[in-house]
Design a protein that fits this description.
Largest sheet of chain B: 7 strands, mixed
Number of helices of chain B: 20
CATH class of the largest domain in chain B: Alpha Beta
Strand content of chain B: 15-25%
Helix content of chain A: 25-40%
Number of domains of chain A: 2
Oligomer: heterodimer
CATH topology of the largest domain in chain B: Pyruvate-ferredoxin Oxidoreductase, domain 3
CATH superfamily of the largest domain in chain A: Thiamin diphosphate (ThDP)-binding fold, Pyr/PP domains
Largest sheet of chain A: 9 strands, mixed
Number of helices of chain A: 13
Radius of gyration of chain A: 24 Å
Helix content of chain B: 25-40%
Number of domains of chain B: 3
Order of helices and strands of chain A: HHEEHEHHEHEHEHEHEHEHHEH
Structural class of chain B: alpha/beta
Radius of gyration of chain B: 26 Å
CATH architecture of the largest domain in chain A: 3-Layer(aba) Sandwich
Distance between the termini of chain A: 61 Å
CATH class of the largest domain in chain A: Alpha Beta
Distance between the termini of chain B: 46 Å
Strand order of the largest sheet of chain A: 2-1-3-4-6-5-9-7-8
Number of strands of chain B: 23
Strand order of the largest sheet of chain B: 11-10-12-13-15-14-21
Chain lengths: 329, 625
């Protein structure tokens, strides 16, 4: 029976996934935690892109950010502290059909998993990576993280942190094959969402550092920046974020930054007080490891049988009679 | 039908002494090609139908100092009429490119007293008087001790054919040995062509000339003539070393991804796999470290592409957290551990079987996994195929333990006949039925159907945290108990599929020797030797170490004594402070004592060498006396 046009509209609306379709368990993060903003943004992305839930995998490590996949109604992999990236690479290497996301924290990514972070940039596999940076350890109850500022008092630095913080943006921009580097803040959800969306559409390893508030251990830490829009630098560009006029009225400190300009990106990352928000660098030309390693033939029983027999031939001692026959073929 | 060649092949004189077997060592400085010479010799003999087993003699450094005792590099070939399963005891004939590496073998007691020694003679006329004197001293010592020393002008003869004899001596020696052992010169020429196939005629032809020259020189100048009768093969056989067999096994097992990090002595398996795997659509990923290699393999396997990670001791230690995750989340994973001497960096190039307990009990908490030992070269191949199947049937971690001695040892085995049954089925992407949960543990077997990303309605969050049937983080204490029970139950379910452990030799009597892994051939040979003297002894070689085959305790009870023999450390009562209350046993002995409550003894040695049948024989005789 033919459907009426109205039926078709109703049916297609019914088949559209809604935000609720991507919602998993009820988040157990603290009220006011920046993780909630990231969760909402990624659920919105899935809805906007109408990603089939079964084709999405969120991979995480350990820490508050590690809980992320539990709150998504997609496939999720909540694995080991610091090892989300190699797990995600293993998932992607032979499953180009899957959309892979990684949620990692400042401890997970910049401390215990640093080696994987550097090399994941170099592999440049197609995945969207969100580094939840609250500049402290939350789940283990407030120890200094590699991004904690000098002098920060924590349970492991009761007299103040001794070292200058590591700058994840500068590190990332300095690694061979880095292809997408962005920064967002949890208190400007509109831009967070634009950045997440641009990251998703980038073919390659998209690294987003999200500065996020920890209401439990560093409740006032970001206040100076949250309360003074002049201390946020928006990086706008036609290939980057494009703040709405209403937002631009609040955030007047803006710079037109071409995401292909790596040198300027490094300057911005290393800059002083103002927090840059936007796409620092994007280069869609960098080859992806899963493409470079894509075999020119599929792993089929026939291919294996043929390759295997050819290999055995190299090492085979044939009985005299068979040797003649084998040589003849 | 094939017949044994009791009469010499055409063109071979019949003045040769007929032998059952000989052990031939070829030693040189690193880079002089003694390994290639030994491997080629073994290859030729295998083509003729002899049983062979080769053992590489490897210095720990890439470029050890020239002419040094510790720098001996080369190959041992045990060449026999019938099949052999180990490298034997000591050399009957040794070829040395200088007297220092020869001294290395002598001091290590690797030479039979009075054996035949073929020495490069150029050192006697070396302009450095110290070198010349050293050569003379070693030669005279050997002669005085009754060794049959032959001085060979290797350098001088090779210079007639090539400008750099350092690069050609090995083929000259190969020709020499082919003449001494009455091997077929045409087969030898073919072997040389095979050995240098990649380099083309430019390299093949001069090497064949050198081969011919060595043969000619032996023909004219040596009175050594041996013949080890061979049975021409009736079926096609392959000759590869253990690590190559592992590479072939991965290729034929249905595993599509190998993630690894370079480590000795495992790496050559990955080298070989890197060369061949892409040809059939597989991938070898060299990760940034051992932990990443394990995590990458876990990710691939989680996504439905069963993966293997290949490593050795230190790398295996680093993977422990990943192994625990795979156990907890029930992700199939195959791990090959090519064991080396430990702990710590230990002896990277040397053989040891010290990782059994760490494999069975490794990773914190209760982490049940399957652990298999590999007994010979053929077993390296089939074990990988079996391991993949177990891993994916039971959603478990399977550890395959081989070691440095198997990694480089060569032994012919019947050419495998490829079967599609070895491969994994295509990944399941069908929708999950309504209401099904990701861990629907069967009450009896603990088994649950695995959900693979891409399957509609199978969405869940896999986690390394304790979880319930829906993969939800468990806060209820009974759920943790249930999860651990089910993961343990899978091991029991797998154990129910195992055949009873078989005893080789006498089925009851005075002494049962129990072993696992690469010691199989040496143990069986030692037991045969004591049985030949009328002792009633048997041996039992365990393929599965965790879980173990049924019937082990019952087999043990049929013998007066039971002894585990292993290439790992144990204490001996009476040594220093050791008594029965503090004695530490060999790896398998610990497990068997706990499993069977039988007071079994053990013997283990960690000299970095494969266990020798003669040494085991001594131990058994002492036990039997």
């Amino acid at each position: 029976m033919a459907l009426t046009a109205t039926d078709c509209v109703l049916l297609s609306d019914d088949e559209r996934s809604t935000i609720e379709d991507y919602e998993g368990g009820v988040p157990r993060w603290c009220t006011g935690c920046g993780d909630n903003a990231i969760l909402t943004s990624l659920q919105r992305l899935c809805r906007d892109e109408q990603l089939p839930q079964e084709k999405v995998v969120f991979v995480s490590g350990i820490g508050c950010s590690g809980r992320f996949p539990h709150y998504m109604n997609t496939y999720g992999f909540h694995g080991l502290h610091g090892r989300a990236l190699p797990v995600a690479e293993g998932i992607k290497i032979r499953r180009p059909d899957l959309h892979v996301f990684v949620n990692t924290g400042d401890g997970d990514c910049c401390s215990i998993g640093t080696a994987h972070w550097i090399h994941a940039l170099r592999y440049n596999m197609d995945m969207t990576v969100v580094m939840h940076d609250n500049r402290t350890y939350g789940l283990t109850k407030h120890q200094a993280s590699p991004t904690s500022p000098l002098g920060l008092k924590s349970n492991t630095t009761p007299y103040g942190a001794d070292l200058n913080p590591l700058d994840p943006l500068s590190v990332t921009l300095g690694v061979t094959n880095a292809s997408f580097v962005a920064q967002a803040v949890d208190w400007i959800p509109e831009l967070l969402h634009q950045i997440v969306s641009l990251a998703f559409h980038h073919k390659g390893f998209s690294f987003i550092r999200v500065l996020q508030r920890c209401p439990e251990y560093l409740p006032a830490f970001f206040d100076p920046w949250v309360q003074d829009p002049a201390r946020v630098l928006l990086l706008s560009h036609q290939d980057g974020i494009q703040p709405a006029p209403s937002l631009s009225r609040t955030y007047r400190n803006q710079e037109e930054h071409d995401p292909l300009d790596l040198l300027r990106a490094k300057d911005i990352a290393a800059g002083a007080d103002a927090i840059p928000v936007g796409i620092l660098y994007r280069n869609p030309e960098i080859p992806r490891y899963e493409e470079l390693r894509k075999p020119d033939r599929l792993y089929t029983p026939d291919a294996i049988a043929k390759g295997f027999e050819a290999e055995l031939d190299r090492f085979t001692i044939w009985p005299e009679q068979e040797e003649k026959e084998h040589a003849a073929t | 039908m094939a017949t044994r060649l009791d009469s010499p092949p055409p063109g071979i004189d019949d003045t040769a002494t007929v032998l059952e077997e000989h052990i031939i060592d070829i030693v040189s400085d690193s880079g002089e090609g003694a390994q290639k010479c030994g491997q080629s010799l073994a290859g030729i003999a295998a083509r003729m139908g002899n049983g062979i087993w080769t053992v590489e003699i490897i210095p720990a450094e890439i470029q050890p100092p020239a002419r040094s005792i510790e720098g001996a590099s080369g190959n041992r070939t045990r060449l026999a009429t019938g099949p052999v399963g180990n490298g034997g005891d000591a050399a009957d004939l040794v070829v040395a490119f200088n007297e220092q590496v020869l001294l290395g073998r002598l001091r290590a007691q690797e030479l039979k007293p009075g054996c035949i020694v073929l020495m490069e003679n150029m050192w006697e006329s070396n302009p450095d008087p110290e070198i010349a004197a050293s050569y003379v001293a070693v030669r005279d010592e050997l002669v005085a001790d009754g060794y049959q020393v032959y001085e060979i002008p290797m350098e001088e003869k090779c210079l007639e054919y090539v400008a750099d004899p350092r690069r050609g001596k090995n083929m000259f020696v190969l020709g020499l040995l082919c003449r001494i052992y009455s091997l077929d010169l045409d087969l030898a020429r073919e072997q040389v062509a095979f050995t240098f196939a990649k380099k083309g005629d430019r390299v093949i032809l001069p090497n064949q000339q050198l081969l011919q020259a060595g043969w000619q020189w032996a023909e004219e100048s040596l009175d050594l003539r041996f013949r080890i009768p061979a049975t021409p093969p009736r079926e096609p056989r392959v000759v590869v070393n253990g690590n190559t067999a592992i590479g072939l096994g991965v290729m034929a097992s249905g595993m599509e991804v190998c993630a690894m990090y370079p480590i000795t002595p495992a790496t050559s398996a990955s080298h070989y796999l890197s060369e061949i795997f892409e040809k059939v659509g597989g991938v070898v990923h060299q990760a940034e470290d051992e932990i990443a290699a394990c995590a990458f393999a876990i990710g691939a396997s989680y996504a439905g592409k069963c993966a293997v990670t290949i490593t050795s001791g230190p790398g295996y230690s680093l993977k422990q957290e990943g192994i625990g995750l795979a156990v907890m989340a029930e992700i199939p994973l195959v791990i090959v551990n090519v064991q080396r001497g430990g702990p710590s960096t230990g002896q990277p190039t040397k053989a040891e079987q010290g990782d059994l307990l760490t494999s069975v009990f490794g990773s914190h908490g209760d982490a049940p996994k399957v652990v298999m030992g590999v007994g010979d070269i053929e077993d390296c191949f089939y074990s990988i195929i079996t391991a993949r199947r177990i891993a994916e049937t039971f959603n478990m971690v399977v550890v395959v333990l081989t070691d440095a001695s198997l990694a480089t040892a060569q032994q012919p085995f019947i050419r495998p006949r490829f079967s599609e049954d070895w491969l994994a089925p295509p990944i399941d992407q069908s929708p999950i039925p309504d209401g099904a949960e990701p861990y629907e543990w069967d009450r009896d077997s603990g088994l649950a159907r695995r959900f693979i990303p891409g399957q509609p309605k199978g969405m869940h969050c896999l986690t390394g945290l304790a979880h319930d049937r829906s993969s939800t983080v468990a806060y209820d204490p009974s759920i943790n108990q249930e999860g651990l029970r089910n993961r343990s139950m899978k091991l029991a379910a797998f154990q129910k599929t195992l055949m009873p452990a078989a005893v080789v030799g006498d089925q009851e009597g005075e002494l049962l020797v129990v072993g696992w892994g690469s010691t199989k051939g040496a143990i069986e040979e030692a037991v045969e030797r004591v049985r030949a003297d009328g002792h009633r002894a048997g041996s039992m070689h365990l393929k599965f170490l965790q879980p173990m085959a049924p019937g082990i305790a019952e087999a043990m009870q049929r013998f007066e004594h039971v002894m585990a023999v292993e290439n790992n450390y144990c204490d001996y009562v009476g040594d220093g402070l050791i008594d029965n209350e503090n004695r530490r046993y060999t790896n398998l002995a610990w497990m068997l004592r706990a499993r069977t409550l039988i007071d079994i003894d053990c013997w283990g040695e960690v000299r970095g060498q494969p266990l020798k049948p003669g040494r085991i024989e001594e131990v058994l005789r002492e036990k039997l006396s």
